[in-house]
Amino acid sequence: MADPAAPDPAAGPDAGPPAPSPLPLDVEEHLTWLAAEKGRSANTLAAYRRDLTAYWGWLSARGQGLDDVQGVDLDAYVGHLREHGLAPSSVKRALVAVRSLHRFRAEEGLATADPGAEVETPRVPAGLPKALTEAEVARLLEQVVGDEPVARRDRALLELLYGTGARISEVCGLSLGDVDLDGSTVRLFGKGSKERVVPLGRYARTALIAWLDEGGRGAMVPERWARRSDADAVLLNQRGGRLSRQGAWSVVRRHGDAAGLGDRLTPHVLRHSCATHMLDHGADIRAVQELLGHASISTTQVYTLVSNERLFAVYDAAHPRARAQRR
Asked: For this structure, is 255 an active site residue?
């Protein structure tokens, strides 16, 4: 799954003509319904809006309205997205947003039929997460040196991402009341505001204690909070506000570059690495599912493929008769 902070191909200049403004009322009502009734996150809603804006622009360029759409038109839209070089995962996501809109219109009585009901969702080739090795993670964490407030914060951020397998939005959304240092746990709020409590490992706990000390977070507390909610934020930026996802991305990238990891490192790669390394060391897949907050075990099972590949690679490299047996 693409990280929300990365550029969105569907929103690029080749994705279709610019959409008229404003969007149809049905689209706005659908987005409101997704937020109020389905509890979709702000990032998910932003992605839906981008995809539906591109779709509406494409329809308008063809002289069509929402009531004119038939299944064959949705097939044509999928072809249009593919012709403009979108990745299979981006095409699938765009069609999910479009089908969701048409299903909503039909169920709410805003349309007489659902044109997306018989349209097949494109298959996305299974991809394996590119986890770091344990040595690479260690090298990354070693880049954060010093005891000044920024160093303490950066160390806490990286240890939390790798130690808990949390999403970047979950870590940036942490409030002081979500951290239980005595019980060595943190409370995370995942997709759809689903809550889960995960263990806080020794290194992550140590890093958090140092950051939450007066010499860390206390030194970044402003004389006056710009927003009331910032006062409860665990991670702060240097202006004393809650650290944003973009700011956290910058921290990860900066230390990743210093460790020689370059574009290989993103916050989500640390999440991948946490899951992969746990399975490498014999963790139960159900436990990893709970840790990561996956709704389906099938999502977590992708990581078992990574672990098996590593096992075979080690076997091929180390066993004297391996290469004769496996090609």
From this structure: no
- Contacts from 305-309 at CB under 8 Å and sequence distance 24+? 305/126, 305/128, 306/128, 306/129, 306/131, 306/272, 306/276, 306/279, 307/276, 307/279, 307/280, 309/128
Query: Is 271 designated active site?
Result: yes
Catalytic, out of 80, 268, 272, 277: 268
Whether 310 is catalytic: no
What pLDDT was estimated at residue 13?
39
pTM greater than 0.85 (yes/no): no
Residue from 50, 62, 187, 191 carrying the catalytic annotation? 191
Q: What is the pLDDT of residue 47?
A: 93
Q: Is 319 a catalytic residue?
A: no
pLDDT band at 127 (very low <50, low <70, confident <90, very high): low
Domains, the chain, ordered by start: 9-107 (1.10.150.130), 134-316 (1.10.443.10)
Known active-site residue 187: no
For residues 270 and 252, is the Cβ–Cβ distance under 8 A? yes
**The one catalytic residue among 30, 167, 245, 255:** 167
Answer for the pair 190, 196: CB distance below 8 angstroms, yes or no.
yes
Helix%, strand%, coil% for the chain, nearest 5: 60, 5, 35
pLDDT at site 94: 93
Confidence of residue 139 (pLDDT cuts 50, 70, 90): very high
Q: For residue 288, give the 3-state DSSP assignment.
A: helix
| Count helices and strands in the chain by DSSP H and E runs | 14, 3
- Can you give the three-state secondary structure of 252-281, one letter per residue? HHHHHHHCCCHHHCCHHHHHHHHHHHHHHC
Is residue 294 part of the annotated active site? The answer reads yes
Predicted confidence (pLDDT) at residue 16 exceeds the cutoff of 50: no
Catalytic residue among 48, 55, 77, 303: 303
Q: Could you say which of 30, 152, 155, 271 is catalytic?
A: 271
